[in-house]
Amino acid sequence: MIRAVVRGFGAALPKRVVPNAELEKTVDTTDEWIVQRTGIRQRYIAGEGETTASLGEAAAREALERAGLEPQAIDLIIVATASPDNTFPATAVDIQARLGITGGAAFDMQAVCSGFVFAMATADAYLRTGLARRALVIGAETFSRLLDWNDRTTCVLFGDGAGAVVLEAVEGEGTVADRGILTAQLRSDGSHKAKLYVDGGVSTTGTIGHLRMEGREVFKHAVGMITDVIEAAFAATGTTVEDVDWLVPHQANRRIIDGSAKKLGIPLEKVVVTVDRHGNTSAASIPLALHAAASDGRIKQGDLVLLEAMGGGFTWGSVLLRW
Ligand code: ACO
């Protein structure tokens, strides 16, 4: 049985760090409020010349280097993003060209904060069915450019960045002891659209629009949706919460992360948290967190790693993989 195994990982952040104190000068907020409600202490904000494609390219280059692969070895690029450089073509083809890759397929995946989980699931399906052999899966965002910087209820929450992994098709035994993606569980429910959306678009206003969110409503659904897809991943693989070495959640809010871990019975020492440093970077948050925990030696080869996300749509999903 073919498994999609992580062979390399990378990350990129904009140069500029924006601590909460800086936002106190522009909107009616305080460091204390932001830390208490979200756990966020700072975020990175893209400057001139820094875009979703440039951040994604940098993350991809590091992932390729760690994998020991030349760009041409890649035959699939999926970029999870809700903040593309252009309406079209896909940011993935931009990154493909920047890397000098001329073969294979490249396309974007739009599932907002769940984008990286959806992209991993898609790449896994391509690799397992032989449609591709080596995939770059990238989560890259410049959400700062979708924010209404006068709206304190949203502008304090988000940040920019990118993360990437190289997945390679490797023959496995078909057991949960295999390295690679063991299961992916994806869900969407468009009836929640109005709770978290961007109020513009090509076919409606002809503008980019701004992110709008009913934070309390999102919060209300988050923990239940996250635990649903995690329990589905355990059921699909016959694993249990005790088998998990690392939970790498989407980094939206410290309270959502802690609430989900508590409900599932996962001790906080096994949870990777970067929301304090990065804010919510949407589709980039999981690969940024993976990068943090794998590069400092916490996540080791053979560890069982559980990814989960929930976001606009709503969309939500989990990926269980052995590193
Ligand atoms: N600074 C100071 N006060 C603020 C700020 C701010 N930045 N933002 C809102 N407030 C005020 C509100 O106006 C409100 O004041 P009022 O009581 O006088 O009306 C008060 O703080 C409480 O507001 P709530 O919205 O009830 O605060 P809550 O405790 O729900 O926290 C938050 C808000 C942090 C957005 C929370 O609802 C949340 O985390 N929701 C989840 C949404 C999320 O993380 N979305 C990310 C995108 S989706 C995803 O990635 C999963």
Automatic annotation (TrEMBL):
<feature type="region of interest" description="ACP-binding">
    <location>
        <begin position="251"/>
        <end position="255"/>
    </location>
</feature>
<dbReference type="GO" id="GO:0005737">
    <property type="term" value="C:cytoplasm"/>
</dbReference>
<dbReference type="InterPro" id="IPR004655">
    <property type="entry name" value="FabH"/>
</dbReference>
<dbReference type="GO" id="GO:0044550">
    <property type="term" value="P:secondary metabolite biosynthetic process"/>
</dbReference>
<keyword id="KW-0444">Lipid biosynthesis</keyword>
<keyword id="KW-0443">Lipid metabolism</keyword>
<feature type="domain" description="Beta-ketoacyl-[acyl-carrier-protein] synthase III C-terminal">
    <location>
        <begin position="235"/>
        <end position="323"/>
    </location>
</feature>
<keyword id="KW-0511">Multifunctional enzyme</keyword>
<protein>
    <recommendedName>
        <fullName>Beta-ketoacyl-[acyl-carrier-protein] synthase III</fullName>
        <ecNumber>2.3.1.180</ecNumber>
    </recommendedName>
</protein>
<feature type="active site">
    <location>
        <position position="250"/>
    </location>
</feature>
<dbReference type="GO" id="GO:0004315">
    <property type="term" value="F:3-oxoacyl-[acyl-carrier-protein] synthase activity"/>
</dbReference>
<keyword id="KW-0963">Cytoplasm</keyword>
<dbReference type="Pfam" id="PF08545">
    <property type="entry name" value="ACP_syn_III"/>
</dbReference>
<dbReference type="InterPro" id="IPR013747">
    <property type="entry name" value="ACP_syn_III_C"/>
</dbReference>
<dbReference type="GO" id="GO:0006633">
    <property type="term" value="P:fatty acid biosynthetic process"/>
</dbReference>
<feature type="domain" description="Beta-ketoacyl-[acyl-carrier-protein] synthase III N-terminal">
    <location>
        <begin position="107"/>
        <end position="190"/>
    </location>
</feature>
<dbReference type="InterPro" id="IPR016039">
    <property type="entry name" value="Thiolase-like"/>
</dbReference>
<comment type="subunit">
    <text>Homodimer.</text>
</comment>
<comment type="similarity">
    <text>Belongs to the thiolase-like superfamily. FabH family.</text>
</comment>
<keyword id="KW-0276">Fatty acid metabolism</keyword>
<comment type="pathway">
    <text>Lipid metabolism; fatty acid biosynthesis.</text>
</comment>
<dbReference type="GO" id="GO:0033818">
    <property type="term" value="F:beta-ketoacyl-acyl-carrier-protein synthase III activity"/>
</dbReference>
<keyword id="KW-0012">Acyltransferase</keyword>
<feature type="active site">
    <location>
        <position position="113"/>
    </location>
</feature>
<comment type="function">
    <text>Catalyzes the condensation reaction of fatty acid synthesis by the addition to an acyl acceptor of two carbons from malonyl-ACP. Catalyzes the first condensation reaction which initiates fatty acid synthesis and may therefore play a role in governing the total rate of fatty acid production. Possesses both acetoacetyl-ACP synthase and acetyl transacylase activities. Its substrate specificity determines the biosynthesis of branched-chain and/or straight-chain of fatty acids.</text>
</comment>
<feature type="active site">
    <location>
        <position position="280"/>
    </location>
</feature>
<keyword id="KW-0275">Fatty acid biosynthesis</keyword>
<dbReference type="InterPro" id="IPR013751">
    <property type="entry name" value="ACP_syn_III_N"/>
</dbReference>
<keyword id="KW-0808">Transferase</keyword>
<dbReference type="Pfam" id="PF08541">
    <property type="entry name" value="ACP_syn_III_C"/>
</dbReference>
